[in-house]
């Protein structure tokens, strides 16, 4: 129903000089979508208050409501072109009046867990990139056609928005930071099996994929009561995100999935000292794909017992310490973590094996993460008991992964099925802790059930063969020359 509207919005953005990338398209669509959503939320709350014979205080004052500046209507409910701002007047209103007004909500809000506070947070981070008031007017009229009144409408919009985030992830290296393939997320959630009442945390939440998919997983459980639904809304999901654009997108994504005031914090998680974490700061479940390849400054490294500049390894320390005793985690990390020989990697593997039960390692194929150019594994562990045995599964979908061949749910079905009792197969095997080298804690074990691979040759052998082939080629060329 709304798919063509989204395509038309992209067409408008494509012609707009201020928007040049998929990231810009998603950002600009997000702030307009957010305000359109709030307009429907206001209308619903107003109606509920009327039915309960209660008074209602609107979030926005009259001149800043969507129906006043973005989509004024006449008495018949049709778009009122005479009252609608266009051109420079519209750009001036949005930049000089609307955005400052919205930014002020943060200071005026009663507490951080209100929709008002989220409004202030979002518009403190985002800028209007439209330079043409005529393009903006076209976009606003298209956004006004969308509706958030029913669950079906929200569901469809959430799918379309996820597709936008995926396109942003496919657009290049920077976009890929925000997108973890949803089939992988769903498999991780199924293995961890969250329950209503448990707290779920992602300290590097990107576009909010783990939190949104876990909400869908828990919402689908049978016999949920009103108290359960309130728990899911208010006391279940906690996310942190450093980058402004990702924070805005995650907020919008969670709202579209049905969480009205997402508990997302715009912060650099790694600036927290992990040694200071108290019980109230800990969670039942951690699901995350922390950024890898980044480098952190010395002052950030001081917050961790194992000093390293590698962002992902600092996040792993944070996540281990953020789990309650008995808590469960599934974390995506570079596969080099399993075998790196530097002191920090060895110390981190030792800590993980001794403080947690690292029961499963899922080895992902190359191309799982578009544009990232690295191979990854997923670590599944429980806090509090040391590791006794590790079950490995090597995912092999039987094809080259890429844009036209992305990961799908069927690819991971066998892993999820075998993982439940950690059965051995052609692609899975178990390693006992006593068989792991205690000097290196190397976890990169070759599949013992796979056919024997030809051993890698040394550089000297390869060069000798190249020389031999060159000599043979030279003889053949000499023979051909004598015949000419």
TrEMBL record:
Q: Which keywords describe this protein according to UniProt? A: Methyltransferase, Restriction system, S-adenosyl-L-methionine, Transferase
The signal peptide here is none
Enumerate the Gene Ontology biological process terms. DNA restriction-modification system; methylation
Keyword check for Kinase, yes or no: no
**Domain DNA methylase adenine-specific, first and last residues per copy:** 153-453
The record places domain N6 adenine-specific DNA methyltransferase N-terminal at: 4-81
By its UniProt entry, which SUPFAM superfamilies does this protein fall under? S-adenosyl-L-methionine-dependent methyltransferases (SSF53335)
Q: Please name the Gene3D superfamilies in this protein's record.
A: 1.20.1260.30, Vaccinia Virus protein VP39 (3.40.50.150)
Q: Which GO terms describe its molecular function?
A: DNA binding; N-methyltransferase activity; site-specific DNA-methyltransferase (adenine-specific) activity
Q: Which family does it belong to?
A: Belongs to the N(4)/N(6)-methyltransferase family.
The reactions it catalyses are: a 2'-deoxyadenosine in DNA + S-adenosyl-L-methionine = an N(6)-methyl-2'-deoxyadenosine in DNA + S-adenosyl-L-homocysteine + H(+)
Write down the superkingdom of origin: Bacteria
Q: What is this protein called?
A: site-specific DNA-methyltransferase (adenine-specific)
């Amino acid at each position: 129903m709304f798919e063509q509207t989204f395509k038309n919005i992209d067409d408008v953005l494509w012609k707009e000089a201020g928007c040049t990338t998929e990231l810009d398209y998603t950002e600009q669509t997000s702030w307009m979508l957010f305000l359109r959503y709030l307009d429907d939320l206001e209308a619903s709350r107003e109606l509920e208050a009327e039915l309960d014979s209660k008074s209602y205080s609107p979030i926005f004052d009259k001149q800043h409501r969507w129906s006043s500046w973005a989509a004024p209507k006449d008495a018949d409910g049709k778009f009122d072109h005479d009252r609608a701002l266009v051109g420079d007047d519209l750009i001036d209103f949005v930049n000089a009046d609307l955005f400052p007004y919205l930014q002020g909500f943060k200071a005026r809000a009663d507490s951080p867990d209100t929709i008002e506070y989220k409004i202030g947070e979002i518009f403190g981070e985002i800028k209007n990139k439209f330079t043409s008031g005529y393009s903006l007017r076209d976009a606003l009229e298209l956004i006004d056609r969308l509706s958030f009144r029913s669950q079906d409408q929200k569901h469809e919009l959430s799918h379309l928005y996820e597709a936008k985030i995926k396109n942003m992830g496919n657009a290049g290296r920077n976009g890929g930071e925000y997108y973890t393939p949803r089939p992988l997320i769903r498999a991780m959630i199924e293995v961890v099996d969250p329950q209503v009442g448990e707290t779920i945390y992602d300290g590097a939440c990107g576009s909010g994929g783990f939190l949104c998919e876990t909400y869908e997983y828990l919402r689908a459980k049978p016999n949920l009561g009103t108290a359960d639904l309130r728990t899911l809304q208010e006391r279940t999901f906690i996310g942190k995100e450093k980058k402004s654009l990702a924070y805005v997108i995650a907020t919008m994504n969670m709202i579209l999935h049905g969480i009205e005031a997402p508990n997302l914090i715009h912060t650099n998680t790694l600036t927290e000292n992990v040694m200071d974490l108290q019980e109230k700061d800990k969670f039942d479940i951690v699901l995350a794909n922390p950024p890898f390849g980044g480098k952190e400054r010395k002052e950030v490294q001081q917050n961790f017992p194992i000093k390293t500049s590698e962002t992902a390894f600092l996040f792993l320390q944070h996540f281990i310490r953020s789990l309650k005793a008995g808590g469960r985690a599934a974390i995506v990390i570079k596969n080099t973590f399993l075998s790196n020989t530097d002191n920090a990697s060895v110390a981190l593997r030792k800590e993980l094996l001794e403080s947690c039960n690292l029961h499963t390692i899922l080895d992902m194929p190359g191309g799982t993460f578009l544009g990232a150019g690295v191979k990854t594994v997923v670590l599944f562990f429980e806090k509090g008991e040391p590791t006794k045995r590790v079950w490995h599964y090597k995912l092999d979908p039987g094809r080259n992964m890429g844009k036209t061949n992305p990961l799908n749910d069927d690819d991971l079905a066998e892993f999820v099925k075998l993982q439940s009792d950690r059965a051995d197969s052609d692609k899975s095997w178990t390693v006992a802790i006593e068989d792991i080298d205690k000097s290196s804690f190397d976890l990169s074990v070759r599949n013992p059930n796979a056919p024997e691979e030809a051993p890698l040759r040394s550089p000297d052998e390869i060069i000798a063969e190249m020389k031999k082939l060159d000599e043979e080629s030279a003889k053949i060329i000499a023979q051909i020359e004598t015949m000419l």
